[in-house]
Specification:
- The protein is an all-alpha fold.
- Helices cover 79% and strands 0% of the residues.
- α6 runs antiparallel to α7, α9 packs across α16 and α13 runs antiparallel to α14.
- The longest helix has 33 residues.
- The N and C termini lie close together (10 Å).
């Protein structure tokens, strides 16, 4: 039997995990600009909430090719995927303010989505490979980079718009371009060919072999997506409608993301010790309950509840990523690509639906509905079957 990659890399390689986490941070700080810019885009192009939600959907469409990016990443070095991602995301996201029409806006976001896919499919597999037996901890570090970026992103872009104007903030793309140059030198000696085996299963075979874990995780991603969509896409607009304060709207999203950073660091590592399903169950109970409380509270209490929501809702991602990688046994990029495709497409479709509902009944009622839908994700946790992982690990020990 083939030797497991976890036997080849038994220890947690802190320097490599941190390097990948930093790259995730630089990349995602730009991809986080859309939500805080949404009020400005709605005003400039006179958009409905459905059209506003469709912007996020267009950004997710390239996720359709995630499995094929994963298969490519299983065969070749993906070094330049990682290196180019900060620049390829920074440029279109920095040009949203100067877009002359809604159509051009959609094109810019589509190209951003391609860059997001090129980065996010192979990167978690690379993290898995250098995390040894601490997969949950490695995914926590990696996801912390992304969540910390989304924490600072709203503050960065609101600050840039305040100083340079909505149509004048485009020079901040320079930072992303410089980051890609720096990443070139940082990554030039890092081995990133994630799998050297030549015989690879088809995408269809991967889906069939992993259906016992992909089906329940997909269901969880969909119901979780309703909570994620209303908060990440419409939280600034929700706060703005309530208070009329642009800065408070940006800060609320940052607080939500900051709580997510803490949750990701804690829950991913704890799942190594107490079990993936146990921690996933805990988060899927707390998140919808706290979202419902958020909808019925105001003032400082509402912000406190928002922190709990961010902690529990966002911390589920590293746990699910760890599950997928461990179940695929070899840490397959193609397997991760399938899961990422399901995750991105489910989330993007849900954003449009949430935007449509918000147009019909208003954001306040929509937040309550999303919290109720979130509660339906709890039973799916108990249908997850991780038996394949245990079989593989037992065989490897022999």
């Amino acid at each position: 039997m083939e030797t497991s990659n976890k036997q080849i890399q038994p220890k947690f390689d802190t320097s490599k995990v941190l390097l990948l986490s930093m790259c995730h941070f630089i990349h995602d700080i730009y991809s986080s600009f859309l939500a805080p810019l949404l009020p400005f885009l709605i005003e400039k192009f006179s958009l409905s909430l459905t059209q506003a939600g469709f912007l996020s959907t267009v950004m997710q469409i390239p996720a359709l090719i995630n499995p094929y990016i994963g298969k490519l990443a299983d065969r070749i070095s993906v070094r330049y995927f990682i290196i180019l991602a900060p620049a390829l995301t920074a440029i279109p996201m920095s040009l949203l303010g100067v877009a002359p029409s809604y159509g051009v806006l959609l094109i810019l976001l589509f190209f951003t989505g391609i860059s997001v896919s090129l980065f996010h499919v192979p990167a978690p597999v690379m993290v898995y490979r250098v995390s040894g037996e601490k997969t949950g901890r490695g995914m926590s570090f990696y996801m912390t980079g992304g969540e910390f970026a989304r924490t600072l992103g709203p503050i960065v872009i609101i600050g840039a718009v305040s100083l340079l104007g909505f149509e004048g903030y485009y020079p901040i793309m320079i930072i992303g371009i410089l980051a890609s140059v720096i990443m070139f030198f940082k990554f030039k000696d890092m081995p990133v060919t994630v799998n050297k085996h030549q015989d690879k299963p088809s995408i269809r075979k991967i889906c069939r072999e992993m259906k016992s874990i992909l089906l329940p995780l997909s269901a969880i991603v969909i119901v979780r997506g309703f909570m994620h969509a209303c908060l990440t896409a419409f939280l600034p607009l929700y706060i703005l409608q309530q208070s009329g304060d642009v800065w408070l709207a940006g800060i609320a999203l940052s607080l939500f993301e900051a709580a997510g950073v803490v949750g990701i660091l804690a829950v991913g590592s704890l799942s190594d010790r107490f079990g993936r399903k146990q921690l996933l169950s805990f988060c899927l109970i707390v998140a919808p309950v706290s979202l419902l409380l958020f909808s019925y509270t105001t003032g400082y209490l509402q912000l406190a509840v928002l922190l709990i929501t961010g902690f529990s809702l966002l911390s589920t991602t590293p746990v699910m990523l760890a599950m997928v990688q461990e179940y695929s046994a070899e840490g397959s990029s193609a397997a991760n690509g399938v899961f990422m495709m399901i995750s991105f497409l489910a989330r993007s479709a849900v954003v449009v639906l949430v935007g449509f509902v918000a147009d019909m009944v208003g954001l306040e009622k929509t937040f309550i509905m999303c919290g109720m839908i979130g509660l339906t994700g709890i039973p799916f946790v108990f249908t997850i079957n991780q038996a394949k992982k245990n079989i593989v690990e037992t065989a490897d020990r022999k």
